[in-house]
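Reopening this ticket.

The earlier resolution said the output was attached, but the attachment link was broken on my side. Pasting everything inline this time so it's all in one place.
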Amino acid sequence: MQFVYFTKSLQGLDVAAILNFLQKAGLHGADLAVRPGYQVTPDNAESELPRVVRQFRDAGLSVPLVTAPTNMVDANSREARRIFAACQRAGVGMVKIGYFVFRGQWEQELSQAKKALEAFAKLAEQTQVRACYHTHSGNYLGNNAASLRWLLSDCDPHYIGAFLDTGHLAINGGPFRYEVALVRSWFCLLAIKDMLWKKDEKRGWHAEVVPAGQGIVRWSDVAAAIKDVRYNGVISLHAEYETPDLSARLESARQELTFLRQTLLNTQ
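Inline output:
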């Protein structure tokens, strides 16, 4: 398996500092955020992404996927076409696209989302870069595997993939083996989060991301699920929790990676 780190939490670091972080943590590479405010953006991706990916490869690291802005749901937009073209040029095989928001008209919105995915499938076929949809809990279509299967049922898995998230599925899904089984044909990426339910006066009950092994995710179920399907792909540590500084984040990354290797690999 290939363990990579989502660079959302490393915003502000230059490429050299990101490479140093990943190497010290013992990771294989990055799930690279290509968003406004990052070094690689949708506007500069066609020139900047190939250059950055070369730096990763020169350092012995990989960029198997990039994560686009959360509102990138139109394959015909300039933003999407630039990102997919940049990935084709850089040799990046997958793009995590944005989310389809549920606004109250499920059948109509499902139909619109499926048409949007058809367009992404065409773009993926043209560029040979797979578009991947992430299971994010909350007010989104595809917020668990059952919902995601409605979206993907007519999609060719060569061009459209399922990006399953351990934390969000613990909040919004069923047993992890069941979740994987529902979208097995499209399953191509695994996101690592753990969650804790917390309560305060302002927000009431809400889920917060914590390091893997410190929350409600049943990791033995995750291990069994990926063993069932012989998953041997990319695992992205999302690490969307707060740390006091970069040194603490590095230590958390190391601890998470050790935990995941012990939990996921030793069972296979």
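Reporter confirms the inline version is readable. Residues 2-265 form a domain with the TIM Barrel fold (CATH 3.20.20.150). Residues 141 and 147 are 6 Å apart (CA to CA).
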